[in-house]
Amino acid sequence: MAQEEEADAGHSGESGGKGWIMGLVLATVLAGGAGAGMGFVLAPKFSATPPHENLAEQAQQQAQQEELSPLYTGDHIVVRLQPITTNLGAPQRSWARLEGALVVKRTEDMVDEQVQQELALRVQQDTLAFLRTISLKDLQGPGSLAFLRDDLNQRAKVRSEGRVEEFIILSLVVE
Predict the structure, then answer these.
(1) What is the pTM of this model?
(2) How does DSSP classify residue 136?
(3) What is the DSSP letter of 107?
(4) CA–CA distance from 119 to each of 22, 29, 104, 108 (Å)?
(5) Which of 131, 161, 162, 164 could form a disulfide bond with 156, CB atoms 3.0-4.6 angstroms apart?
(6) How high is the mean pLDDT of the chain?
């Protein structure tokens, strides 16, 4: 009789363990299905790149353009440069990223957008070459930004044969 009780106890233990495992498997399958279903429902609402990044960047560019435009109207045109990223002359591990714009006298040929872009490209290439020659020490201190701006103004005027009135530094990041 003791053997029968042990056999019954062993039987109920095995079926209890199988039931627990089956319940766990069933719960896992249900949770996975619910997660996949939510993924299919919510996936179209999300894009690959977060929309706030694109919107923030567009808003910043629009705000900068709006800030510049009212200041220079009538006989001036504001031409934005592409961001310039380069290493500095010393130390080699230091990098600079400069965003700028040119204030150009409005003339018949400067109304053409292709002429504006060619001028911007010439000034941008010269600015890139200039940034590669300066050192990190040249950008430190209270007056360094003013000196950099003056140097970039002079170089832009030379490259544009006097068409550029002013070189505007929109942002400068040095790492």
Answers:
(1) 0.57
(2) G
(3) -
(4) 73, 64, 10, 14
(5) 164
(6) 79
Residue type present at position 69: S
In degrees and rounded to multiples of 5, residue 132 shows phi and psi of -70, -15
Q: Rounded to whole angstroms, how far apart are CA atoms 81 and 18?
A: 70
Query: DSSP per residue over 142-154, as a string?
Result: TTHHHHHHHHHHH
Q: What is d(CA 74, CA 16) in angstroms, rounded to the nearest whole number?
A: 87
Question: Shortest CA distance to 88 belongs to which of 51, 121, 134, 56?
Answer: 134
Q: What is the mean pLDDT of residues 141-165?
A: 91
Distance (Å, whole) CA 158 – CA 86: 22
Max Cα–Cα distance, the chain, nearest Å: 113
Reduced to 3 states, what is the DSSP secondary structure of residue 162?
coil
- What is the structure's pLDDT at 16? 67
- Residue 86 burial (10 A CB sphere; 0-12, 13-18, 19+): middle
The architecture (CATH level 2) of 52-174 comes to 2-Layer Sandwich (3.30)
Q: Is 3 helix (H, G, I), strand (E, B) or coil?
A: helix
Measured CA to CA, the distance from residue 152 to residue 103 in angstroms comes to 13
pLDDT range class, residue 37, cuts 50, 70, 90: confident
Token pair belonging to 7 = 């056999």
pLDDT in tens, 140-151: 888 898 999 999
